[in-house]
Design goal:
The chain is α+β, with helices and mostly antiparallel strands and 194 residues long. The chain has six helices and seven strands; from the N terminus they run H-H-H-E-E-E-H-H-E-H-E-E-E. The protein has one domain.
Amino acid sequence: MPVVPLQQLVADIADALAAADRSGANHKSFQPGIGPFGEAEAVRAVITHLKTTQSETYGAAIIKRTPDLLIPGRWAVELKIVRPYGDNGKPAEHWSQNVLHPYEGNTSSIGDCLKLLASGLNERKAVVIIGYEHSPALVPVEPALRSFELVAREVTQIDLSPRVEALRQGLIHSVHQQLRVFGYEVLGRLRADI
């Protein structure tokens, strides 16, 4: 079966998160909506929706420790969440570190890229960043994504595909009102001596 293109994978993840949001599900004692979900809970919501609605494409997908989401023979996907604001509407401190720390073994998206490259997995590798914003954004996640791309390329010498993005608006949470899902295929290292 052919590999789902990255653009479609990102759109499918965005659709799955939007569907979980519409269900009114909530995480712990936070407001209803997908925005406050932690990474593990968001991955579970995505895989549950995709297995139900697109079983031919995603029926074999599994949640793992590395990668977060494995679609055997197709994609090894690491996901990360960025939220400039918390559930309570207050600015979130250190939210951008989820994508920027350029160290192997770190849990940032940069660390995830390095982990995928060292994994030995035969599947295509992708990093997917899930961003939540007000609508319109009070603090846009875009500058953090551009910084991620720059650090990946210039500091850690990671070769990423061009960014693909899916936007879903009208979320039910009062703070996390829109969802932006960004995807990058992790292609390799630009220099072998790093």
